[in-house]
Amino acid sequence: MPRDADALAEGVHFFEQGDYGAALAWLQEIPDESPQRVDALLYIGRIYLAGDQAPLAEQCFRTVSVHMREPFVFFLLGESLLAQGQVVPAEAAFREALRRDPTSASGLVMLGRAVAAQGRHDEAIRAFEAAISRDAKLAAARFYLTDALLKKGDTLRAVGQLHYLLQLAPDYVPAIALKGDIAFRMKDYRQAALEYERARARGVDDAALLERLGHAYLALDDEPRALVAYDAAVTANAQAWEAYLWAGRVAQERGLPRRAARYYQAISRHPEFGAESREALQELARNPAARAAPGRGVAGGEAEEPLPDPGPLPDLAAAPAPAKPSGPKTKPFQLHESQAARRVTTTKLQAPLDFDDAFEEGDDPEPLPPPTPSSGPVARGLDILKNFLKQVQQPPR
């Protein structure tokens, strides 16, 4: 059908131009019974995959794989499954692709990713090494090899691989961020902050990385920059719940009650962080300085306190990190692995508590158990962070 062939040609043209909306409009005009439908579904699936619509992409690629048994179709199917966390079927799809094209270096990287996600790090390392033997300049292979070595606990070899990777591709942003993670793991917080800032300067707007940047600054006693980093994390992802908690702690310590309240409100009903945030909101509500703050708070639309101005960024690598004072003992707090890249939790929460109501004169907030004595929320948070850092230094079993 000439009309369907023209629609396919237009769709491919716009796809190659990066105009996915126009490409999708043309490709979806091709009916199911058309001979061009399979080719159209291949591009539609790639558009869905690029748009974080992995389940829809999977449907497309499964249909295409019935008619086209090419290796790249199974690679795409595996990628869509891996994006959904379906690592076992993703591994099967990658193995089928490699059976049809055993020389593919990038296919070995994909297989290694699926295997590593199942905790089989030795097998993943062998897959990444095989990919490098086929293409020594494949940056992704060395990046994932470094990550697998770290997870296995072979830090020395991971550092060597990362050094080689950054010589090969100095601007490879995932490697720069990973270098920061390694520095953080080794308690070199200045170097960690420096690498995270380098990644950020190259356009990275990832909430998890920004949160780790905040942790690095907090470990350096640089609370203003830590708060800026945590605020950037929640701006990048409004459901980065843990970053809200750290931002609230630092803002409260810095004497910014309205800003602290906004962060605490966002997680006031979180199953893990809600108890601490509600306790902090009650403490803020009892604070006369907070009651005297102008306006009715962020929920009422009034301006909140501005972020602190940390001034020009210092030469982070110039001076040694200050020794951290030991903080008060607190109950254990499960901090997600800050030293490694992770997907930010995005579970929806119920509506947050109304902080303005807690500030209304004459209202008695609902009583909570009295807080344990402490030198402030950041001191508590630092103690938690330090305990976590001790845990990640333990050798793997």
The CATH topology name of the domain at 171-397 reads: Serine Threonine Protein Phosphatase 5, Tetratricopeptide repeat
- Stretches where pLDDT is under 50 for at least 5 consecutive residues are 292-301, 322-347, 353-374, 390-397
Shape: globular
* Mean pLDDT across all amino acids: 81
- How would a crystallographer describe the biggest sheet? none
Helix content: 55-70%
Distance between the termini: 62 Å
Number of helices: 20
CATH H-tier superfamily of the domain at 171-397: Tetratricopeptide repeat domain
CATH classification, class level of the domain at 171-397 = Mainly Alpha
Write a structural description.
The chain is an all-alpha fold and 397 residues long. The protein has a domain at 171-397: Alpha Horseshoe (Serine Threonine Protein Phosphatase 5, Tetratricopeptide repeat). The protein has helices spanning 2-16, 20-27, 37-50, 54-67, 71-83, 87-100, 105-116, 121-134, 139-152, 155-168, 173-185, 189-201, 207-219, 223-236, 241-253, 257-266, 274-285, 288-291, 355-359, 377-393. The termini are far apart. Mean pLDDT is 81; it is low at 292-301, 322-347, 353-374 and 390-397.
Break the fold down into its secondary structure elements and pairings:
Blueprint: H1 2-16, H2 20-27, H3 37-50, H4 54-67, H5 71-83, H6 87-100, H7 105-116, H8 121-134, H9 139-152, H10 155-168, H11 173-185, H12 189-201, H13 207-219, H14 223-236, H15 241-253, H16 257-266, H17 274-285, H18 288-291, H19 355-359, H20 377-393
Helix pairs in contact: 1-2, 1-3, 2-3, 3-4, 4-5, 5-6, 6-7, 7-8, 7-9, 8-9, 9-10, 10-11, 11-12, 12-13, 13-14, 14-15, 15-16, 16-17
